[in-house]
Design brief:
single chain, alpha+beta, globular, GrdX-like, GrdX protein
């Protein structure tokens, strides 16, 4: 069955919650960091997928939050392919600039769980938007 949407994520909570969703396929990349998720998103955009959520849709910087989730669609385009390409390119540049020379912090399990919840809340806020609700829910 063809699913309309794909999550590119390193968040285990997103993977667990949406793995059996009727409309969403989850590309769970546990070993990827924030910037890796953006680069993987770029590769999907180059294959014709479209951004459904902004890659930097939160105030958390790459080294502040270890989790990142981006929703894409092959069938539905909010912006032109050129605009999607520009958004992801600028997002990668911004993330690289913000994380340059910084090491990944070693978070304890409670902090990691909190970051999963933060990433989930950003995603779910987007899913509840009137634009996405009509396609996803």
């Amino acid at each position: 069955m063809h699913k309309k949407f794909i999550f590119i994520t390193n968040n285990p909570s997103i993977s667990q919650k949406y793995q059996n969703h009727d409309s969403i396929f989850v590309q769970y990349l546990a070993e990827y960091d924030f910037c890796d998720i953006l680069r993987e998103t770029q590769s999907f955009i180059e294959k014709g997928y479209h951004l459904m959520t902004h890659p930097l849709a939160s105030n958390l910087k790459p080294k502040q939050c270890p989790y990142k989730s981006v929703l894409l669609s092959k069938d539905i385009a909010v912006f032109s392919a050129e605009r999607d390409s520009e958004i992801i390119k600028l997002s990668i540049q911004t993330a690289d600039k913000l994380s340059k020379g910084m090491k990944n912090p070693r978070w304890n399990e409670k902090c990691l769980k909190d970051f999963q919840i933060i990433d989930m809340s950003v995603v779910e806020s987007a899913l509840q938007s009137s634009l996405l609700r009509q396609w996803v829910m």
